[in-house]
Design a protein that fits this description.
- The protein has helices at about 1-50, 50-75, 85-95, 100-125, 130-140, 140-155.
- The protein has about 160 residues and is mainly alpha-helical.
- The protein has one domain (about 1-155).
- The longest helix has about 45 residues, at about 1-50.
- The protein is flat and about 65 Å long.
Length: about 160
Amino acid sequence: MEGQNDERPQAQARREGVHLIRSLARSLLVLVIFIPVAAALPLAALSLCRTPDGAMFVFWAAPWSCAFWTLIYSTLSAVPWRQGPEAVRRKREADGGLLVASMWATAWMFGGLFLSYAAEFLLLFLVRGASGRAWLPVATYSPLLLCWLWRRVHV
């Protein structure tokens, strides 16, 4: 009886380990697919918007790319990374630490996502037809411009 009880925690730990590895593999697969698509979509959106199906893909997928680029820009522009790692550490400590910086970056990212969808819906209701499709990438990535302007004024 005792030997059987000793095997159960090992079997449970093995199952949890397999579940953890599968979950990690799924997350890595999402990252391997998402990062290149999100990075390339701003340029691809210019040609995709020429067709209605491409514009529909840009309408639904590009705000996620905008959120990715807003996260990257807000993180890099918040610290003096060109001056080296010590300057980054001093700036982060002065601003409240890495947790506060990560919370601000996350807020910028979700703000970029929601504002991108809002700008697209606004464009959808204000401009109809092919001319609206031509302006879709500008509306989609407008939160990135807002982030850039905010940093220029407040930093």
